[in-house]
Structure formats: structure tokens, C-alpha cells
Amino acid sequence: MQLSFHGAARTVTGSKHLLTLNNGKQVLLDCGLFQGMGKDTDALNASFGFDPRSVSCLVLSHAHIDHSGLIPKLVKEGFNGPIYATPATKELAAILLEDSAHIQRDDTRFINKRRARQGLPPYEPLYDIDDAVRALDLFKSMNYDEWTKIEEGVEVLFTDAGHIIGSAAVHLKIEEAGKTTSLSFSGDVGRYNDAILRAPATFPQADYIILESTYGNRLHDDVTGTTDHFHEWIVKTCIQKKGKLIIPAFSVGRTQELLFTLNQLELEKRLPQIPVYVDSPLSREATELVKAYPQYFNQTIQEIMRTDSDPFDFKGLTFIKTVDESKRLNELPQPCIIISASGMADAGRVKHHIMNNISDERNTILMVGYCEPRSLGGRLMNGAKEVKIFGEQYKVIAEVGQMRSMSAHGDYDDLCQFIKGQSPRKIFLVHGEYDVQQEFAKRLRSKGYRAVEIPEQHAVTNL
Question: Does the entry feature the keyword Hydrolase, yes or no (predicted)?
């Protein structure tokens, strides 16, 4: 059989890994959208590198758009097989994929107005809402820790990856010509001391492991200091400078962690009386869905819920729904906190908030997660003095800050803990920048994992 890598290969987005069996059947692991890749983004999303009509089934690790966002395009181009996911991932995908279609439509309209004035041809969105709806009809739910047959000679097992609600590591058992081969795909690995979720689960021995490596060269700040650090940014921006605190955050995972931290500040009577706005069309739905799966929360938050029934709500919190409400936030004269998607600041409403607030020194743009270096968030984190937003240049006058303790991705200690006890024939590193992966590969080799490979985009290997 063959394994090929068509995304998240020496970069962190666009996760797609294709397993081709000896009988010609194809199993696709994830189908993510490339995000924040600068001028290369459109070209990378335009072509899969394989024929969608030939894919037999899709196994989805979790619902984040860099892992699921091209599923509607896959269906648009002829895929019609089952999509296997955990129940929570299926529910999250329903809101995230429809939201992705709406964002593409809205951003395309905004960009095309400017292109029309410049005499340039219009962009076309990758897919529309109908494609997203057709994709959702193909989803089939699978629980954690249950082996399930998905093709002749192929079984799959989901184990909790601890990254977001419903996230899974994917384990395949393939029988061909009397031989059994096991392949594990980490998806995105969460943290072993996450503020909300359970730690990643152990999994059966694997012959081959596809392992994410986002933070393969880094140790995160101690999560126990997150509340104090966040409080410092709120006081500095909203109380001392009397400005707006703009926080790009993915609607699933990071937004809930921010709300949980703000709720903790209120319980400790340290949250200033300033309005907090969550400006993302799907954030309320996502937050309600997260609260529907308390069995995936860690013991600490379950203890908190004995006295605080809703750890994601507090006085002064408002969810923004309409575009008009979102636009009015830019007209507010008073200090406030605005949490808005996307986390890399390369799409969605947060891009407009940054555009409208980046030129005021009272304001702060606070990055709370990983950003691809070429994304708007990545350029801001790397100290850009001027950035292009919707085709126009803006000087970076607002303060840009970072909170490294809030990542939903495990650092290199977490990743090493995840594969502890495994003795695979080979580890394939994906979902990481190449320089980071090279450092992580050295670390893994020093721990005894000799066969570590970093595949290029569209690379093919025989198993």
C-alpha cells in the first residue's frame, strides 16, 4: 500500500493524507483548507493532488477548518463516500463548514468590489453553502474506543486527542494478503494539562505513525499563569490606555478557553466592569455545543461546575450576531474586549476589527495561538510595522501582544508523551513548519525513534 501527503506537509495547514490500498481503495485522512499561506493559498486550495472521485471514504480527526475545510470542495468535485467522525466532530463540522461557506461568500464579495474598481476579474469561492450541506449528509458518527470496519480489510479506532471537543487520533488496522499493518494518525494533539479538556489517550501499538509537530521545538508557558497574564493585558489596554483589546481566536476551542478564563476572573472578583463581545456568527452555537459534552472535560472543570453551572458565562458578555452589530463595535468610543474569528486573523470578522483598530496606539491586538508566519496574525506576531489588509496597507500603531500559554496544541514534551511506549517502524512528521520539524526530528531520534521522515507536499511512500 502507499501513503501520500497532500497537505500539512512542511507547513501547518491543509491537512490531507491519502492511504491507497493494494486493491485500489483509497482512505483519506482529513481534508483541510490551506490558510494564511500568502499568495500561495489560492493555488494550494485549487488542486487536491489526487482525484476526489477515487476516494473510497474519509476519516476526519476533528472539525477545525485546517482539517475539514475542503470537504465541501471534495464533494463538489465528485467524492460521494462516507465521512467518519466522532459525534461531537460531526456536530461541530455542521456549523463550521456552513460558516466557512458564508465567510468565503462574504469575503469574496468584499474583495471583488475592490477588484471591480481596479478592473480585475472576480474571484470565485471554493464552494458554496449547497456543497457544504451535501457534504454534511455523508457524515457517519463513530464513538471513541470502538473498532469499526470501514472497508473490506480495514478497521478504524478513534481515541481522544484532547485538542478540541470531539478531536480524535485515528488508528487504522489494515489486512492485506494475510498481513496486518497498523497506522496511527495523531490529528492535532492536545495538552496534558489543558484548562478544560481531558488529556490525550493512550493508543495501541502502531507500525507507522503520522504525527503533528506544530510546537515540536517549543515548551509552552505554564498554563497556571494564564489567568494572571490575561488580567494584565486587560488592565493595561482597557483601564490604563482606555483602548480596545482585540483577540483573534478560533470559534471552537480557543474562544471557550478565553471565556472560561474571563469567568474565572469574575469569580475571583478581578474582572473589570468593561463589556466583552464575542463577534463570530458561530461562536454561540459552538460554545453551546461544547457545553453539551461535559464528559470530555477534565476533573478540574467538572469540580468547578459543581458550584458554577456555566463556566463560560459571566456578567458583561455579549455574543454578536449580525453584520450591522459587528460594524457598530468599531464605532464604540469606550474600552472593551472583542474576541473574534479567525485565530490567524486571515479571514472572518476579526480581520475587519484589526483593520479598523490597528492605527490607534491605545488598542492592543492580542494573539493567543499559533499563526502561520505568512498569515496576517503571523506577520503581526513577527513584528511587522506595516501590513496589507483587504488590499490596503496599514501602519501597525496598536500594540501587538502574545499569550503563549493558551495553545490547544501540545508542545514537544506533550508530543513525546503522546507516543511514549510506541515502537513504530517509521514516524512521519506533518503539520509543522519545516525548521521546527527538523528540530523535532532530532529530538525524537535522540529518544530512540531512528526512522523519522518529514514528507514534502504530494510525496508518496510505500508502507
Answer: yes
Cell numbers placing 43: 493555488
Contacts of 417 (CB under 8 A, 6+ apart): 192, 200, 410
Low-confidence ranges of the chain (pLDDT < 70): 222-224
Q: Which of 460, 462, 441 is nearest to 450 (CA)?
A: 441
Full set of structural domains in the chain with CATH: 2-218+408-462 (3.60.15.10), 223-406 (3.40.50.10890)
Dig out the grid coordinates for 432 from the structure. Answer: 509543522
Contact assessment for residue 420 and residue 410, using Cβ atoms and an 8 Å cutoff: no
Question: What is the pTM for the complete model shown?
Answer: 0.87
Cell numbers 497556571 correspond to what residue? 224
Q: Which three cell numbers stand for residue 427?
A: 514516524
Q: Residue 145 has which C-alpha cell?
A: 474506543
Rg (CA), the chain: 22
**Of 280, 200, 265, which Cα lies nearest the Cα of 231?**
265
pLDDT tens profile 112-141: 888 888 888 888 889 999 999 999 999 999
User: Is 340 strand, coil or helix?
Assistant: strand
Take residue 86 and report the three cell numbers written for it.
466522532
The CA–CA distances, whole Å, from 291 to 37, 177, 253, 317, 385 equal: 33, 46, 12, 17, 40
